[in-house]
Amino acid sequence: MFPIRHLLLIALPLVLRPAFAEAPAADLIIEHARIWTVDRARPEAEALAVRGERIVAVGSEREVGAWRGPTTRVIDAHGHRVVPGFNDAHVHFSDGGASLTAVQLNDVTSLAEFSRRLAEYARGVPSGSWIQGGNWDETKWSPAELPTRQAIDAVTAGNPVAISRYDGHLVLANSRALALAGITAATADPAGGMIVRDAHGEPTGALKDAAIELLARVIPAPTPTERRRSIERAMREAASLGVTSVQDMANPPLDYSDLGTLAELLGEGRLTARFYVAPLITGVEDQAKLGIRRAFGGSWLRIGAVKGYADGSLGSRTAYFFEPFDDQPGFRGLLGETMQPLSKMRGYLERADSGGLQVCIHAIGDAAISTVLDLYTGIAERGGARDRRWRIEHAQHMAAKDFDRFATLGVIASVQPYHAIDDGRWAESRIGRERSSRTYAFRTFLDHRVHVAFGTDWPVAPLDPMLTLYAATTRATLDGRNPGGWFPEQKVTIEEAIEAYTLGSAYAEFQESEKGTIAAGKLADFVELSEDILHLPPAELRRVKVLRTVVGGREVYRAASP
To answer: How far apart are CA 387 and CA 507, in angstroms?
Structure first.
């Protein structure tokens, strides 16, 4: 999938360390392991050695044993599989941490249960404080209809409510929240957004995409203490799942508070995952005017990327398509607010490109993806060829003509396989069989030699890498109706999936020389697993657990028992 750079000038002297040399001993050795290195020059190994934050040797027990000293900590892996640390290429990290203690609505199966669970949660919330979170999914209900404010007003009268659909592109507000935001029948739909209305023109409480901002502006931001707790909670979750790096994609509104909290934790030596943070492209000047360029920072915290939006989501019917939705004739979705007019987004892209910043654009519908590729093409023609590593986040529903354009432009497909087995339950009812055949087209991307990076979009989908690997290799939808795979021709192998989740994601943040493989000279980020995922039937990947997570040579998680 990717050209792999090998640090041979560093690696060979370290692995072949002569016995007579007075070189320092390793701090840590992992032995009796089955190591999948994702290094094509030497994919399998038995042991590895770490000194400081970096791997100094990978190879046989004999080779690595030369690094053992009187103070070396030696861990017996008992034959377990060890892989590079997982690098989630698309998360909303503090939101994910906050979701762990917010009201949980994703698994409810009826409107009645939705209201009941919200009522239970509201009883434990101080009067007047906002209720958020939720991650509800009406496609699991019968009938599968959007909830309204009337369904929750009676049980949340003491609190304003803004609970998100699981894709984050639709929020349900109660009447109290709408009143605080001043949203009425007279409020116009903003560009790139929609206020859902009833037959009389009154807001139902459902707000789509840019319309969410009308509500967000009156919701108090988390306090510094709340934000820190969310990030610390999220780091514990990540460590327990073997996620050692995350690429944190901004959501509106533009807010650097998370970055400030991460810097504070870095200064205290308390980060347990590595971060690449991409604020919103609307604030491109903030980094460009300081001369910050792509992947600026240190191994634990980097900036230098910006994130934009081209459209919404399929679930909220706000993804932007060439043809109308099958179940909503005449409606093609919504082009994002920053894409109206296109000259606005072009200006942001030109400034980012001239400043050497990496660009990551959310695009889900085929027309949105194609439009972003058009914009990228124009920038490249004016600015000349160079290693930009433009990204399209999600890249879900492709036009057939655009796979080659991804490859030609060197655009990275930053994709989230779990969405395929979730959306696959109902996607064909919205866009039909033919368009669905190019949905979550992982195999087609790889066959066109497109760089692919795996992530989750957490908290939209679970953070657990095992579920992502399961989704990519089986494509078995969550409703059990496609055990052989939804469009099974788009499956990838377990080796390809691991590579996309490690080296592929590292490439997507300009860090493939630093992490993504287990090789001498690279950062010592790796994970010990309960089972050998390379030889396990893909359908059983969901049961695999993380036994140990190491980041920079430091153990940040160990399971209570194997």
So the answer is: 11
Angle between helices 465-474 and 494-501 (to 10 degrees): 140
DSSP code per residue over 273-285: SEEEEE-BGGGHH
Residue type, 254: L
pLDDT in tens, 465-523: 999 999 999 999 999 999 999 999 999 999 999 999 999 999 999 999 999 999 999 99
Helix axes 224-240, 257-267, angle to 10 degrees: 70
Q: Considering only CA atoms, give the Rg of the chain.
A: 24
**C-beta separation of 501 from 533 below 8 A:** no
Helix locations, 182-333, DSSP H: 212-216, 224-240, 257-267, 284-288
Q: Are 36 and 535 in contact (CB under 8 A)?
A: no
Residue with tokens 């893909």: 538
For the chain, domains (ranges, CATH) are 1-84+517-562 (2.30.40.10), 102-216 (3.10.310.70), 279-516 (3.20.20.140)
For the segment 128-137, what is each residue's pLDDT rounded down to a tens digit?
Answer: 999 999 999 9
Paired with 453 in beta bridges are 414
Q: What number of other Cβ atoms are within 10 A of residue 74's Cβ? A: 14
What is d(CA 127, CA 216) in angstroms, rounded to the nearest whole number? 19
Reported pTM: 0.93
